[in-house]
Fold these 2 entries.
Entry 1:
Amino acid sequence: MGQMEGLDVLACERCEELCESRTRIVNGVGPADADLLFVGEAPGANEDEQGKPFVGRSGDVLDETLREVGLDRGDVRITNCVRCRPPENRDPHKEELANCREYLETEIDRVDPEVVVTLGKVPAQHLLERDVAVTSEAGDVADVTIQGSPQPVMICVHPAATLYDSSQKGTFEDTLRKAAEFTDGESGQRRLGDF
Ligand code: URA
């Protein structure tokens, strides 16, 4: 059972274990027509408590790096593959990812961003449906079919990776800069096309 209104899942009981471990469903945040849509893995403790994605340390890194490339959290949309916190922050199981995919695809389809940026291995592999080496493939873009339409998806490392391995900081920043330029280029072309 699931119930979605606009971009939000209001009620869902598809995953028995996650219904137990969550405090609440954590929906995406940010403009409903954002050019950039970031997709993480699943809410952690902070996200579960506050009901918003990326509000802990990873969120701080994301916010800081967005600012470094000239963007603000309020300019972009941020969501997760799975909307309920898994117990002890384990990775979401395959069935949980599959149960939540309809919501993610609906959100991507309705927001219709210029580019989806995957934060970490789980969302990259989930959307691209293959093994992904996120560090070496960071910044690469592939079209993924979302509800019948091609959607550009850019691979990116998880912001938390920069906390454990400082060499990932540059990779993360370069990818966000590329994503920001991607949206500039696309919307620029669109604007020219309007004349
Ligand atoms: N990590 C994620 O993948 N998602 C969040 O919302 C927070 C941390």
Entry 2:
Amino acid sequence: MADGDVPFDQRDGFIWMDGKIVEWKDTKVHVLSHGMHYGSAVFEGERMYNGKIFKCREHSERLHNSAKILDMEVPISVEELDKLKYEVCEKNGLKEAYVRPIAWRGGEQMGISAQKTRTHLAIAAWSWGTYFDAEKRDKGISLKTAKWRRPPAECAPTQSKAAGLYMIATLSKHSVEREGYDDALFLDHRGYVSEATGANLFAIKDGKLITPTPDNFLNGLTRQTVIELAEEHNIPVEVRHIMPDELGSFEEIFLTGTAAEVTAVGKIDEHSYTVGPVTRKLREAYEALVRS
Ligand code: PMP
């Protein structure tokens, strides 16, 4: 059986959990954990390239910030977290890895209030190739606009990488996958184009890079990196709201995310795009940077 086919809870290896390295299969969580009943969990998704975690510190800081937004506290410091992520990769013999720290509220208290709960922490790492099918990724993946919309920042902790926020992402992704699309595109509550289910969006028009203002979705670390790379390559960048009726006028579209990296989009609803020179240039620049 290929590694990718083995269910996640039955793999071999080691996970750091609540203070120690534990056999992968023995990392158990109690059924009455607050995190499971009320979605009080925050997590990170990081990639190690050739033995180095890209933006390691920024991811650790974001986990702390995500927790703070949910009124939780990660039980270890940013510095300790940085060190432990490397230890977990080393213990699993990984130099190319996806790293997943997760913090969640325990089972000391049941009900909405969670003042008495302890925040648990686990760090896992495994080999994970391209997020989207590698062949599709080169041709450009297909997106369909989701029925669900991203909520306003007044109605959800949108700047936290909080587990609960992914509920509409899973529903939307299932719905479009059943119709043969690779991912869903969210509009926000105002009807502006926001992001895909787990990646930010960029559009190219007349040589200019346009990306939505991250005022109610995660301002991804890959998004921020790609904006910097575009500026280094003298590609003008415009951060602004995008209306869905503009989608037909763009020449290229791509997504960015730690898992998705830079992924070209070939289609959104009835609109088609080429995997053009700007997408290719920024993808190459990103691939070079993460391995530098
Ligand atoms: N939006 C969502 C909803 C995500 O889950 C992710 C992945 N963390 C991103 C955007 C991209 O963030 P990053 O580039 O920091 O991985």
